Amino acid sequence: MTDTLFELNGGRYQRPIKPLVVVCIDGGDPAYLEASLEAGVIPNTARFMKDGFYTVVDGTVPSFTCPNNMSIITGSQPEVHGISGNFYLDPATREPVVMTGPELLRSRTVLAEYARCGLKIVSITSKDKLRQQLQKGLDLSQGHVSFSAQYADRCTLAENGIENVLDYVGMPQPDMYSPELSLFVLEAGIRLLQDRRPDVLYLSLTDFVQHKYAPREAEALDFYARLDDAFGRLAELGAVVGLTADHGMNDKAKEDGSPNVIFLQDVLDQTLGKGQTKVICPITDPFVAHHGSLGGFVRVYCNQGADAEAVIRIARSLSGVESVWDRDSAARVFQLPADREGDVVVVSEAGTCIGAAEAEHDLEGLKGHRLRTHGGVSEARVPFIVSEPLNDAYWIRAAGGRLRSHHIFEFTANGTVR
Q: What topology does CATH give the domain 261-373?
């Protein structure tokens, strides 16, 4: 095994002997792998799982996109990197703050540390909301590349390290609500691996398909077959490939197909009075057609005079609620930054989601299909796959039972070095 190149958040990272590709399959619940294996549509992934390494591990809770991507690229939990959702309530202004700014990320990243050591980095994400945090610490003038499929048609050398991306990849600008948004990310990564031979690539997909289709539906199986083809081509180009997910996905609809929702703000307003509390749904992002801002984890902020214990009692009495925590307990149990946490945290069961006030949620985009969403503990289990066999040291670590999704870079880089 080679010497340590750098240390970050308790992890030791070696210089990859092959190009290193880590893919975050947004919404990649293990059930999709199981269904695709049964259907025989993912031969490359099946080979990785058989000949390399495969297990199912815990990700970060809340099981949302932003905190889990940041956990993956920092090798740590939110108590270290500071990103615990898409939104939190600023304690000084009492206004919601979008948590996608690079200034809010409190840790260095694996990508930036590799770059500091002279390696060439490619970071491609489906949605631009992640891009600036993913590229924090990267000097793109040094040959690194960072862009989103969402704005592939706007890329510049100064902002992204690449231009004319649509022509380069040979695909049209993908629609935000399409499988092609994820596939564009993979095709761009493959092309860059062919042409520029970067040392480290991070490719983060989007969960449009998983929000819309259950694991055994034809559209989901087709999507996974297309992902698998891309994973195989990455490996054929000589890369060691690590696959994980930011979160799983569950059906949270009633028998009649309508969303199975607890509108917690309405409940609290009716019992405690309007203005006593503020419910924040940290799943909220600009793409509400995916989920209507309904997820499995919400934060409740108590205004002056409101009682957190009363909120806890009310929330615990509601059918469909899995657990309720005060700020300090939530921060301890889920390894979250306490200064960005609500007074109360409410987590739903697998078949239920939680919203704020019913009037605040636009559910038009959910018409015609069952609500599938995420955020709670029930969606925190994710696949962990390395395309090549692990060395003895990392087999022993994996057998120790404390493997998490944020270890994927370390295992993919170090675990395959003999």
A: Gyrase A; domain 2 (3.30.1360)
